[in-house]
Amino acid sequence: MKLARLNDGPEIFHTIQGEGISAGSPAVFVRASLCNLHCRWCDTEYTWNFAGTPWEHDKDAQPGGAKHDKAEVIIELPPAEVAKEIARHPCPRVVLTGGEPLLQQGDWLEVIRHLRQRDPAYLFEVETNGTLIPDPDFEDAIDQFNVSPKLAHAGMPEKLRLVPEALAHFASSPKAWFKFVAARPEDLDEIDILAERFSLPAEHILIMPEGRTAQALDRHGPALVDACLSRGWRFGDRLHVRLWGDRRGV
Ligand code: SF4
Question: Taking the domain 2-182, which CATH number applies?
Answer without folding.
Answer: 3.20.20.70
